[in-house]
Amino acid sequence: MTISIYRRAPAAGVFAILSMFCAWGMGPATAQDAKTPDYEAIVASPDRSDADRQTDQRRQPAKMLAFTGAKPGMKVLDMEASGGYSTELLARAVAPSGTVYAQDSAAVVERSVKDKFDTRAQKPAMKNVVHVVRNYDDPIPPDVGGLDLITFFFAYHDMTYMPVDRAEMNRKMFAALKPGGFLVIADHSAKSGDSATVGKTLHRIEESTLRQEIEAAGFKLVTEADFLRHPEDPRDAPVFHPQVPTDEFVLKYQKPS
């Protein structure tokens, strides 16, 4: 099931025409869409919430947005969007003509995130977001394809203790990306040898395990980032009660052209 949370009519006909051209990748908006946004300015937007600014302190969102390469006009899938912290940032980065599909399963939405996401969805910055309520191993509506970017932030480990076919999920993500499109995935690092066994207890996953699963679907590693690395983390405590900053890995994969 796909739920559109925003479909406001443009204020003027000329704006509507320009928006259509932009969505089709043609016309006057194309040059603007090629520009890289000012990610620091996005993060500093005065209408962002205090709660999100608190989260910024550990997430380093400007660096994460730059690493994703999100730009105006892009079509993005945000896996396990949860309360929409990353969804909103991505929506700001791909505005005004891009779209962000914020995905979560029906069970998770009803149990823990519906109110948070619905409240966020009322913000003007979320006008180009579509809330997609589907199972994680079938996350993309059949009428959605040719995605430029998929993000999977700090949630892949959740798939290890839910009834999710991760191999099928990864195949579906691969199929939904356009050739040359990117998957950016970040998660909390588990100790060597922990594999996928501590997802529920520590909310972590061993990096090598995640890499193997993603690469089995056909994704090719392009680069990785170290701005969330914390080698001082012994990686043996739940991430919600860290004694030191949590060690986290950030990886960028690509669907071969």
In CATH, the homologous superfamily goes by the name Vaccinia Virus protein VP39
Query: How many helices in DSSP terms?
Result: 9
Provide mean pLDDT, rounded: 89
CATH arch. level architecture: 3-Layer(aba) Sandwich
Q: What's the story with the biggest beta sheet?
A: 8 strands, mixed
Instruction: Kindly identify the CATH topology.
Output: Rossmann fold
- Unreliably modeled segments: 1-33
* Structural class designation: alpha/beta
Strand content bin? 15-25%
- Integer-rounded radius of gyration: 18 Å
What helical percentage do the residues reach? 25-40%
Distance between the termini: 30 Å
**Succession of helices and strands:** EHHHHHEHEHEEHEHEE
Top-tier CATH class: Alpha Beta
Report on the structure:
The protein is α/β, with parallel strands linked by helices and 257 residues long. It has one domain (2-254): Rossmann fold (3-Layer(aba) Sandwich). The protein is 33% helix and 20% strand. It has helices spanning 13-23, 29-33, 39-43, 50-59, 61-68, 85-94, 106-121, 166-176, 207-216; strands at residues 2-4, 75-79, 99-104, 129-133, 147-153, 177-188, 220-225, 248-254. Strands 1-4-3-2-5-6-8-7 form an eight-stranded mixed sheet. Strand 3, helix 7 (106-121) and strand 4 form a beta-alpha-beta unit.
